[in-house]
Structures are given as structure tokens and as C-alpha cells.
Amino acid sequence: MPIVMVVLQVLGVAAVLAALVVIATNWPSRLDLRIAMRYLKSRRSSRLLSLIAVIAVGGVALGVTALVLVLGVMNGLQNDLREKILVVNPHLRILTYGEGLRLDDWDSLLTKVRRTPGVEAAAPFVLSQGLISAGHDYTEGVAIVGVESDTGTRAVTSLPRHFTKGDLAFRTTQPGVDGGIAIGNRLASKLGAYPGDVVTLVAPAGSQFNRALGAFVPKYRRYEVTGLFETGMYDYDNSYVVMSREAAQVFAGLGSAVTGLELRLSRPEHANAFGAHLEAELGYPYRALDWQMQNRSLFSALKLEKLAMGFVVFLICVVAAFNVVGTLTMVVRHKTREIGILLAMGMPRGAIRRVFLAQGLFIGLVGTALGAVIGLVVGAAVNRGHLIPIDPSVYFIDHLPVLAEPVDAVLVILASLVSASLAPLYPSVQAARLDPVTAIRSE
To answer: Where among 255, 283, 311 does a domain terminate?
Structure first.
């Protein structure tokens, strides 16, 4: 993979340099531009471009539009998944080595971590698993997340902003319950459990051995649904149960211990390097796990898919460049007699070459501008209007996101202009090599 990236970068730089050399050494004059535009216009109306020129411009515009949209979709998927993953997952987690996820001396560690520069917020958390039921035969496996009962700015994740009902205070109104919980809207719909209802959670960690039965009997705990959240991430909304850290400690049988610490960083894009530094500072047995490492396979797959899709769609731009070659070749054959007359009148062969290079550059510029504008406008409309719904159970999100990155847009425009600059080389050279006498005799 790195070798392929290096090769592509070298080829890209070489193509850009070649295009710059072509443009710098063949910059057209005003006369060259007038002749070039005259050759591109239709005979019937001097105000309209010929059909073949329109087709060539349309081919370039189509290729640029497709490339802008495809890269925008891949960027949108990466950004949307990143934002949704960070709704429940923190930027960084501090865990311990050894069997089980258990951190006993977390109070002093929390104080030390909060004083570390670059840490905006830190809090203990508990992770566990269990079974949830709403008083009928249907039971669902869920992930139990214990967090601090805080709805203010000290919250480590953005989960408090995604509540549709209730909050992270977990205030209960039903007597005899073990605490309050918040569940996703999809899980609430499947269970038929909404705020005020009582559900039962089975804690495998709290199971006790029954000598009479000769087996472990799981513990059942009753909780009141005090909140609903909707993150847009299928897994979170369908299988996550959030409760207070104290209630989660009792549910998981951890006593006063927690699973670990979760951190919100001022620069989440550097979570990997920050985690390595913090891990070295804390020493054994602590380890840092950042959000990028937890989802490395997913983002690596998206990055590879973006590269592959961008390369495949770029072939459309290459086809458009060949279309420009065909268009200018037809113009040369159609204007052979006029070219011969210009040569006979003393026009330099270099000027003839610049005429057709100017035509290619005009087609490339207009097609690239149209394609970039259309791609950006269509992408923005699809993204804002959620025009393309997709199955969230498969793709984790409920609509196709499109995000146009400035760097990608610039690269697309440069690639299109480079191909448009190199495409007219062959026809322009052939036009400049015509013999005046033979060209004037041509019918």
C-alpha cells in the first residue's frame, strides 16, 4: 500500500510538471485565441459552440462531477462515522493490563490525568454486558455503559446532546428499582419500553451458585427507563444501555472499582500520539486505547475504498481526455485547408500548435469549472436534504452523507486540468506539421 501511494504521488507530480511546461512554452497570443475560438464555433451561428466541442466539454464536466461526488461520499462516510462513533466512545481510554478490565486505584489516577495538558475532561466509566427484558418473553443482549451522572460541559462524550427525552441525571420515580437507565430509540421500540417503564436486566457477572440446582443462577435487577437517546448510529441506538457509574459498578459486581478512565482531548486527531505519551508517563500496568486504534480496521477500509473508487472514477476523466483528443483531431481534419492557408500566409508553425493547445485548454477549463460546480451543488443538496436513504443496520448510518473537502476539490481540478493540458498535444503537433500546399489542395 505505501509503495502504491508513493508511485501515484510521483506520477502525479510528473504529470503536473509536464502540464506546466506545456502551458509555459506554448502560451497563446490574442490572435491564437481568436483563431482557436473561431474553429470551435459552429458555422451556422458564430455565437454557439459546435456540437463536438459541446460533447467534449460535457465529457470533462461529467468526469469531474463524478469524481467530486465520489470523493465527497467517501469523505462524508468517514466524517459521519467518526462523529457517530465519538458519541459514546471517548477520544482516549486508560485501561490496565491483565485479566479482566478492572481499575481499583482510579481516584488518584483520575486526578493526575486531569492535570495533564491537552486533557479537557476525564471521568471513570464501566463497561459490561447483560440481557434486557421489558416484562415479556422477548430478551435482548445489550452493552451496559456506566458514566458519571453529569449533563454539563464536563461530559467526556457528546451523548448528552443526543437525548430526545430525559438526560444523564437518571432521576427515578418508580419505587423499588435499582436505578435509572437510558436506552436508544430503536431498543425502546423493540422492547416497548419508554420513560417511566420498568425493565429487567440480567447481570451475568453477579451470578451466584445454587447448590440445590447445581448451577449458577443469574441476578435480576429492575431499572426504570428515565431517558431516550438517538445518535444515528445503529449499534448504539439498538443495543446500548446507559446508567450511572455507581449503578453500573453494582450491576457488574466491581465494587468500588471501574473499568477504566475516559478522556476528552483538545486535539482528538492526535489521540494516538497523545495516548502513547500518556502511557509512557503513567507506566505499567496502565495502557492507553484511542478511538482511532479501536476503529482502525473500519477507517483503513474506508481509506482504501476511497483511493480505489477515486482511481476508478478518475478513468472517466481519462476517457474525457481521449474525447478531447478525438475532438481536436476532427477539427484538424475539418480545418486542414484553413490551416494550410494560414501557413502559406506566414503564420509560424508554433502559432498553429498554440491554436489547438488553446482549444484543448478551453475545453478543459470550461468542463472542469462546470463539473466542479455541479458536483459541489449536487453533493450539498444530497447531504442537506438526506435524499438518498440507506439501511442503517448494514451501513451504521441512515442516509448517504456527502462532504466536499477543499483539498480533494483542488486535487480533482488539478487532475482534470493536467489531463486537458496533455490531451491536445498530439493533435496540435499534427496540425503544425501539415504541408501548406497539400493542406490547401485538401477537400
So the answer is: 283
